[in-house]
Amino acid sequence: MNRTEVFAIIFKRNQGAIMHAVDGLSHAEGLLQLPGDSNCMNWVLGHIATYRDGMLADIGVEEYMSEEETSLYGSGSSPITPDSPSVDFDRLVELQKLTFDGLYGWLTSNPTDLEKETRSDMPFKKGYAGYWESVIEHLAQMTGHESVHVGELSALHELAKVSMTGK
Amino acid sequence: MELSQIFSLLLARNQSGIEASYDGIEHADSLLQLPGCSNCMNWILGHLAVYRDAMLAAIGEKTYVSSREEDLYGYGSQPVGQGSQCNDLGVLVDVLENGYAVINDWLNCNQSDFTKISPTDLYVRKGETIGEHLAHLVAHEAIHVGELNALREVALVSLGKGWK
Predict the structure, then answer these.
(1) Which listed residue, of A19, A63, B32, B37, carries a Cα 20 to 30 Å from B129's Cα?
(2) Does any CB of chain A come closer than 8 Å to the CB of residue B48?
(3) 3-state class of B34 per DSSP?
(4) What does the alpha-carbon distance between residue B145 and residue B15 come to, in Å, rounded to a whole number?
């Protein structure tokens, strides 16, 4: 087993859980809020996509998100609510697919430049692009980060199902 | 960055998330339930303990969880709630801390062999090699750690500390 296989396994598990969580839901359900100080599904999906796009930037594979989109979902960004600006749910789902395909395709292509330095020319902040010293460090830090946010989707999916049953 | 360092980093992130989730939380708070069919914090911590034991067994280390606990917290087990059988929160915390320390030591000993075929009699066995097994279980663990975030929030609300 090599290092990229570990990341490929983790991303594949994450992607399976993400697609399960969004299945059958619409934009409105993506804005539902659990008790306490946690984020809605829309924010979590946008956050995952933003940090994946940051990884794509550092490995040199096509990126998909604009500055306007990523600014809504970065670390410390304001909560997404029904009254705040947000990216449409269908676009967020599309971004999960696009970014997964980009990362998984690269990881399974036997890449050899894992130790290369991250970018120093990012035109705007996108996840942790350009932050860590090497690509491998970026991937190691952010795959675990992603999995935890994927776990947050589970309870939000249940909340959406309860809401839909109530209708 | 070597494979052992990657696993060590991922596991450390998970353990840190676990410890942050139960900080200041009592056993009763760990039984609180979110809307829908999700599990309480007590079940998730027990489930993590069962699967962490499957990591320990794979690397040939002492395990901590009994078959009774596997029945309570294993895949497909009944939800844990008020009045049902479960372990005390403090017991689960100890098991998770002990298991983490042992696995982390093994990862940092410079003798970890990730290509070795994992034992066939594990409670759960993912992939042929120890490396594959650990990759799946660390990812499985991280997703459940994410589930703890909302459960901590509901506990804080119950304690009158939520809704910042």
Answers:
(1) A19
(2) no
(3) coil
(4) 8
